[in-house]
């Protein structure tokens, strides 16, 4: 391969739906892609969702084929469990230094059977399941992970921490376990970079008025998505954290940390819709269950979204109350949360008891944006999103030539918009590399 | 000559093997007709398993392969490709799903799952025996794109494709490029003049050597399929033909004219936002009291959708008015304020801080307007927060209306065989994952033709559609699966049902020469466009349609072997 040829290659950072789509589009245009994902599997946040608005098809059922297409594409090289360390050079001739973290499992030998995790004695909080249950120290990120190989978590593995164990090595028929594997550093020549690092949920504990972390039956929307998901920790059964009982009255609180000058000024753009969806899904699971959604403005602006809200109201027993609740308290005996609010349409103060409260937490740019922006030399905006200096006419540009952005790492957006932005950024890269052979 | 079939049965670790008695299924497979070898693998998809299939093809001179494992969704392409590398035509392969159809759904009955696995394997062997070798279809792709509509979306798509090195034919029915944006004064959120944004773009398009702009033309017809479309245009009565490989549709939308609503058409000082923007450029003076009414003709019974950006358009004009005349009293009567995302919330806040008044009304109590001498004089609205009526004297009332679908949408839909949705906008292939694609290959959509959206999103979609349109041209050829339907013209009764039912527009009429001297119409399938869904086959009353790889004969062989043979 000549030097020029290898530069007709792109580094995509972040393997959520945006990064996956950008990679597939570039690969289909004949451009070589290195897709770097820090987690053990691609899929991003969408992999954590149960179903997705506005069509309510199962997130995994539409995501999994994309993940597989991405993994099997001859022009795409997946570098999961990896992170960018350094980028040098300029558009058309960058050198990217990538660190592949040790999985402690030889990925060419692991067949994903899961015997290791079954026998592993060490339990760790499962962040994929939003902290609702535990996984083992050797684990698969989620059941449909791509690649489907296991990883050993070096912070918890007894053997790696120098204690007596070695169980997984003994049990593995494929002889894939290797406790002494080292991080690898790769240097990759690329012509352009696309950032697609997505979002993280905002920590809602500081909003003490809502009691998350203190009132057991107050959970976040992301936790709810895991709970209602058939492959989640409760196999899709809704259970109150306080007593494992099925809830019958849910409250959804919108703009928790969003549109709030004390926290995040901006609107997170997807929560009005995802809360509506979650209320619909809950009603589908339990026809007796009703939901009340507390909102300021019901922001349903995408294609088909207004009809979706109507359906929720008319067919799924979802009640919409225009209010920004001031406080949530807990009933002592039942541990039921009580929501205190002013209904601005009826103009009355009220306190209402629910079985469970779901907080639509603000969504913030990936916390790794700060370090990745530093390494890439691109600017962030005041909120920490990847800044697009000429956003109006060039929504993909960053402050550095040859580095582009797409998806939620630039501004809050839902899956369809992230997919559009991803494909669009692929066009931008194709233009930038059009002269490169 | 007798067939030589190889059967490979996967344990999938314990996923299948923990429930289905795989060795028993292997032993059973060996007893089936023409099976010359059968083996179980711990993981058929691992390199070990795959190489074992390739070795067996050589060793036993296999001419058919069956794999019974997890799921065709992810693994069938892998196994087919593996057969090909082993020297076997990849269409002589059959997949049997014994994980999802056996071990997963029958986890509680190991024996039952095993019996069913044997049945399914027997069916697979029956079918594979009747498969015939096929070749993938390859079509060359013309390296040129047609972009229909020269608004901001089409201009963006055209320029990007040209910058990527492709020829572009841009057609616009008006004499000028720019679309809706021509009438817009300044653009949120920067409040720059729209001209400053549009003019350089139009200039770049008109001067790009790879772009031919056809202005003032009418699109008369589109024929063909991905890689090879024939496009007929007419301009002042003369016809022109173009050949292109891919198409981007960006025909935009129109602003709703709210005839008969809120005094529109009756009072001279009641107008839409777009009408106002046109006027604003020359004359805004003397406007001290302006009321805007949002959601006019939107989010109501007859038009349920939300116009997406109209709240922001209203705020923009309010901000501009207030900047011109800080004394102006501006009221925005609204329902929900749709200021989604990162920038619009701040824009909203800016409007509030400038002293623009927002009053929330309910759709059940719409504002009322009274006037005299062709002029609106006073607006009354039920203030939801205060719970009482509020009255405002006005110099002007602006009605904020949504976009409505382009007038050509239905015609274009029929001509190009692409769907429009309930609301009248073009309907994409999948709302979430294929937002700028259509079910048929090679045609893509961008901008307000798909759904009302603001400039940034139009531009994003223009680029996205360009990426999709570029891909087949970059590849140079489109390869399509050989499993498509085919018509036996002698059996075709020319009823046309299949043509109606095909979601991809892959079936058309053709002349058929039957018995000597007889020429008549018969349906014919364009294999490049056919996706192998089988709807046409099911719809054919004459039995003249068959699906390659799923012929009646093959399916009946599977059915017969289930009904007529007992596995145990
Ligand atoms: C509770 C909830 C429900 C939702 N429901 C819906 C819905 O129903 N429908 C819908 O359309 N949208 C929904 N959304 C929004 C949807 O999740 C996002 O639109 C979508 O996930 C954005 O995709 P993305 O690829 O931009 O980001 P992400 O999905 O966040 O992916 C980013 C990826 O980048 C990786 N990454 C981050 N930093 C680095 C780094 N430094 N190096 C390498 N990799 C990195 C991350 O690990 C991740 O895999 C919901 C969101 C929430 C919170
Ligand atoms: C009052 C108002 C104010 C606005 N203000 C803003 C703003 O401040 N900021 C912002 O971001 N957005 C604003 N918008 C939205 C913005 O105008 C649109 O997003 C954008 O102009 C749509 O571009 P488009 O290319 O998709 O469609 P269009 O601009 O509608 O272009 C479509 C083109 O296709 C042509 N065409 C149609 N049919 C055919 C055919 N059959 N054959 C050939 N050509 C055809 C049309 O003649 C037209 O030129 C505003 C809209 C309105 C109504
Ligand atoms: S989408 Fe809805 S809930 Fe989320 S921040 Fe915006 S207005 Fe609030």
Beta-sheet strand percentage of chain A?
A: 25-35%
Largest interface: A-B, 71 and 69 residues
Helix content of chain A: 10-25%
| CATH fold-level name of the largest domain in chain B | FAD/NAD(P)-binding domain
Are there runs of chain B of 5+ residues with pLDDT below 50, and where? none
User: What structural class results from the helix and strand content of chain B?
Assistant: alpha/beta
Fold-level CATH name of the largest domain in chain A: FAD/NAD(P)-binding domain
Key structural traits:
heterodimer, A: 437 residues, alpha/beta, FAD/NAD(P)-binding domain, 3 domains, 5-stranded parallel sheet, 10 helices, 23% helix, globular, disordered N terminus, B: 568 residues, Rossmann fold, 15 helices, 30 strands, 31% helix, binds flavin-adenine dinucleotide, binds iron/sulfur cluster
Write the layout of secondary structure elements.
The complex is a heterodimer of chains A (437) and B (568).
Chain A lengths: L2 H5 L1 E5 L3 H12 L3 E6 L13 E2 L4 E2 H14 L3 E5 L1 E9 L2 E8 L14 H5 L3 E3 L8 E3 L1 E2 L11 E2 L14 H5 L12 E7 L1 E4 L3 E3 L16 E3 H8 L20 E8 L14 H15 L4 E6 L9 H11 L2 E5 L4 E4 L6 E7 L4 E6 L2 E6 L1 E3 L3 H8 L26 E3 L9 H18 L5
Chain B lengths: L4 E6 L11 H9 L4 E7 L5 H13 L4 E6 L2 H14 L7 E5 L1 H5 L6 H21 L6 E4 L3 E5 L3 H12 L3 E6 L13 E2 L4 E2 H14 L3 E5 L2 E8 L2 E8 L2 E7 L1 E4 L3 E3 L14 E3 H8 L8 E5 L16 H15 L4 E6 L6 H13 L3 E4 L7 E5 L2 E9 L4 E6 L2 E4 L3 E3 L3 H8 L26 E3 L9 H21 L1 E4 L4 E3 L9 H5 L5 E7 L5 E7 L9 H5 L5 E3 L4 H13 L4
Parallel strand pairs in B: 1-2, 1-3, 3-4, 6-7, 6-14, 7-10, 14-25, 16-23, 17-18, 17-23, 18-19
Antiparallel strand pairs in B: 5-26, 8-9, 11-12, 12-13, 15-24, 20-21, 21-22, 27-30, 28-29
Helix pairs in contact in B: 1-5, 2-3, 5-15, 6-7, 6-12, 9-10
The structure holds flavin-adenine dinucleotide (2 copies) and iron/sulfur cluster.
